[in-house]
């Protein structure tokens, strides 16, 4: 007998349409006309929606187990892939490796692997999507792996700030401590520009990020195995906590999107700190041959070309184009960058270079170019564990909406599919990390596409997986993605990040009529948005890294010098030199003292510890107390990450605050909106447009 706190979930093996775990939807006779083309009405998806053209009725609904002709499966799969491939590329290693591509923080090995990481992320997402859509029943247990729905997998933006922080910290510490791997070398192959190249340090850091994230992902597996318990579902993952998690993911990333939009993160973060030292801002160098200060009008032009093209598509585009507008608007920006040039003297500098594309192999696969050795960094484990909790919360809402659009209405069946989705998320994240890709999670833009196209058939999910694997196998496609000028990337992901924030608002909005929920949101938002706006309230250097580590050493909530075991020393004059003449001591050199027949006493110096850190870029401690420094790193990361501190506050308050008597069922009838992932700017708009039609 099950406890009353548990929901009955069918633990029998699937029968009927689910008996083949998804294989049946692919069993189409492709050699026949119906199996190849079918009779689907394409007018709705392909007709521009402008006032002068009469609206076309949406097509017929296609269920999750319906067989589709090959052309239809490939078309719908392509639609899903185009809507998410940009998000997977940017969160799947491209922006991680970008942290190692700066002249002041450089690892040539990791920087050169940027396009390879993009390909790995596409490959991993495609292969892991198959497992999620397939839904494998675990014999002898009530559990399954996968949702058996069109739940597409992709790299999670939630882990992006942590991965970037690890790579940044390892490179800066290696350079500060004089690591033997840090040598003088040409910057990006330019013999005229010599920099400190910490070869392999970034590779090691990324490997430790993958290994630590893989261990943290086991948390999702544990949650999946206990998800049928009411306490886990309603106390740990209520809508108010899920909504706050999504809201703060957007809040944490919007500023990063704007930095990419303006030319690059590093040059944005260090305008003031470098200006204080050298009198001029750091120059952005992530847009081909053109190097300008952050926020230059040329960078604005590239970023706005993406945004304006997206607006045009939303005005006159067909539903198919609207659901994939991020891809097409990015392609328009790429064309603009390829045509435009910047005049400098007698040279025309290009915003786009094809060096990466020329050097990339035609075909690639996991571990073919770089094999990242998984490691473990204890100081980053707790922050990554919180990231795993947040992706679990997102997946719960995502699968519920996918089930709704797939016309799965039985509550026990929805819970069973949520359990399968969470378990697949955890298992897939571990596999992804072993393949060199950041942890994976279910994307939700497919919910908007399902609502738009009326196609919930799993064959579309399998086709999407096939397209992702296809583009991942061709190394030059990944290299082309990694070569896109940063302002264009910023124009895309700024919209993605902001829509994440808006989706969190949509989840929290209906809950705010309840005073208890309003208080939870208020306090969580106060600290979450507070540290997003003023991160220096926790770490004195805020987001600055160029000489900002001096501030981190000396000031802040927990200055790093408190964890220093051995400080550097410097010769300090204890007693100055002197010359005694007729009983009077004056400060002159020995030669002058001899001329006046005085008695000379040399200065006395001692090696004295230097605890302050001034203009030395954090090179202020020879050895740290490892345990204390690791704990400090973990705590500071959690407190200054908006979705770290906000979700912890929301979770704790939800557990300790009593539910108000007049609202005993305040969350009972609340229907979880879709979660928003990296390319989810399309989802909400598509659902709304469909409902309006």
General description of the model:
The chain is mainly alpha-helical and 693 residues long. The chain folds into 2 domains: 16-555 and 634-692, no CATH class; 560-628, no CATH class. It is built from 27 helices and 19 strands. Strands 16-15-17 form a 3-stranded antiparallel β-sheet. β3 and β4 (144-145) form a beta hairpin. The radius of gyration is 28 Å and the shape is globular. The model is unreliable at 1-23 and 669-693 (pLDDT under 50).
Radius of gyration based on Cα positions? 28 Å
Ranges with pLDDT <50 over ≥5 residues?
1-23, 669-693
Q: How many domains would you count in the coordinates?
A: 2
The number of helices is: 27
End-to-end distance, in Å? 48 Å
E-strand count: 19
What share of residues are in beta strands?
A: 5-15%
- Lateral strand order in the biggest sheet: 16-15-17
The rough form would be described as globular
Largest sheet: 3 strands, antiparallel
Average of pLDDT: 83
Supply the helix-strand structural class. mainly alpha
Question: Helicity, in percent?
Answer: 40-55%
In brief:
The chain is mainly alpha-helical and 693 residues long.
Fill in the keyword field for this structure.
mainly alpha; 11% strand; 693 residues; disordered N terminus; 54% helix; disordered C terminus; 27 helices; two-stranded antiparallel ribbon
Helices and strands, with pairings:
Layout: H1 33-36, H2 43-46, H3 70-98, E1 101-102, E2 105-106, H4 108-112, H5 114-134, E3 136-137, E4 144-145, E5 153-155, H6 160-176, E6 182-187, E7 190-198, H7 201-225, H8 230-236, H9 239-261, H10 265-269, H11 271-278, E8 283-287, E9 290-293, H12 297-316, H13 319-323, H14 325-339, E10 341-344, E11 347-350, H15 355-359, H16 381-405, H17 411-434, E12 440-442, H18 445-453, H19 458-473, H20 475-482, H21 486-508, H22 515-533, H23 549-554, E13 564-566, E14 569-575, E15 578-581, E16 584-586, H24 590-595, E17 599-601, E18 604-609, E19 623-624, H25 626-640, H26 642-656, H27 681-692
Antiparallel strand pairs: 1-2, 3-4, 5-12, 6-7, 8-9, 10-11, 13-19, 14-18, 15-16, 15-17
């Amino acid at each position: 007998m099950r406890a009353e706190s548990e929901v009955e979930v069918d633990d029998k093996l699937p029968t009927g349409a689910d008996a083949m775990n998804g294989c049946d939807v692919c069993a189409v006779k492709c050699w026949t006309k119906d199996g190849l083309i079918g009779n689907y009405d394409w007018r709705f998806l392909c007709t521009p929606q402008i006032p002068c053209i009469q609206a076309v009725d949406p097509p017929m609904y296609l269920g999750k187990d319906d067989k589709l002709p090959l052309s239809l499966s490939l078309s719908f799969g392509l639609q899903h892939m185009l809507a998410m491939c940009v998000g997977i590329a940017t969160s799947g290693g491209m922006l991680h490796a970008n942290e190692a591509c700066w002249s002041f923080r450089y690892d040539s090995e990791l920087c050169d692997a940027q396009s390879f990481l993009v390909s790995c992320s596409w490959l991993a997402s495609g292969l892991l999507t198959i497992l999620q859509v397939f839904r494998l029943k675990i014999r002898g247990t009530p559990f399954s792996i996968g949702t058996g729905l069109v739940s597409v997998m992709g790299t999670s933006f939630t882990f992006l700030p942590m991965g970037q922080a690890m790579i940044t910290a390892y490179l800066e510490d290696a350079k500060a401590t004089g690591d033997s791997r840090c040598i003088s070398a040409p910057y990006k192959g330019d013999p005229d520009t010599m920099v400190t190249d910490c070869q392999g340090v970034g590779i090691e850091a990324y490997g430790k990020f993958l290994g630590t994230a893989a261990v943290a992902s086991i948390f999702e597996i544990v949650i999946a195995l206990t998800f049928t318990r009411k306490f886990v579902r309603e106390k740990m993952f209520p809508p108010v906590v899920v909504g706050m998690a999504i809201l703060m993911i957007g809040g944490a990333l919007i500023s990063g999107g704007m930095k990419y939009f303006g030319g690059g993160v590093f040059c944005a973060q260090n305008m003031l700190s470098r200006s204080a030292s050298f009198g001029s801002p750091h120059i952005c160098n992530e847009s081909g041959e053109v190097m300008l200060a952050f926020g230059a009008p040329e960078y604005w032009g590239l970023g706005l070309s993406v945004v304006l093209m997206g607006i045009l598509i939303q005005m006159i585009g067909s539903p198919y184009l609207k659901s994939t507008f991020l891809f097409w608007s990015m392609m328009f920006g790429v064309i603009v960058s390829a045509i435009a040039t910047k005049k400098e003297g007698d040279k025309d500098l290009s915003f786009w270079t094809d060096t990466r594309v020329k050097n990339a192999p035609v075909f690639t696969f996991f571990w073919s170019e770089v094999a990242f050795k998984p490691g473990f960094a204890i100081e980053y484990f707790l922050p990554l564990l919180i990231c795993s909790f947040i992706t679990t919360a997102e997946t719960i809402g995502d699968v519920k909406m996918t089930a709704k659009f797939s016309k799965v209405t039985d509550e026990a069946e929805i819970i069973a599919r949520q359990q399968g989705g969470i378990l697949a998320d955890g298992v897939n994240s571990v596999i992804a990390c072993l393949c060199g890709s950041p942890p994976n999670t279910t994307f939700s833009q497919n919910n908007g596409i399902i609502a738009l196209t009326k196609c919930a058939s799993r064959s579309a999910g399998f086709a999407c997986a096939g397209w992702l694997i296809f583009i991942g196998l061709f190394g030059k496609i990944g290299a082309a993605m990694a070569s896109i000028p940063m302002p264009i990337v910023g124009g895309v992901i700024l919209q993605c990040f902001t829509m994440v924030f808006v989706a969190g608002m949509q989840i929290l909005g209906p809950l705010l009529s309840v005073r208890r929920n309003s208080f939870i949101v208020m306090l969580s938002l106060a600290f979450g948005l507070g540290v997003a706006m003023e991160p220096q309230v926790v770490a004195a250097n805020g987001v600055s890294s160029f000489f900002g580590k001096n501030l981190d050493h000396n000031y802040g909530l927990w200055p790093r010098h408190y964890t220093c075991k051995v400080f550097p020393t410097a010769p300090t004059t204890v007693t100055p030199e002197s010359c005694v003449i007729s009983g009077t001591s004056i400060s002159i050199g020995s030669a002058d003292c001899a001329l006046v027949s005085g008695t000379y006493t040399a200065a006395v110096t001692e090696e004295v510890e230097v605890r302050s850190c001034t203009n030395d870029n954090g090179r202020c401690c020879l050895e740290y107390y490892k345990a204390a420094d690791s704990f400090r790193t973990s705590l500071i990361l959690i407190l200054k990450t908006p979705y770290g501190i906000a979700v912890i506050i929301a979770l704790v308050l939800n557990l300790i605050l009593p539910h108000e008597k007049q609202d005993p069922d305040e969350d009972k009838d609340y229907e979880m909106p879709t979660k928003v992932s990296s390319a989810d700017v399309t989802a909400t708009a598509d659902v709304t447009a469909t409902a309006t039609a």
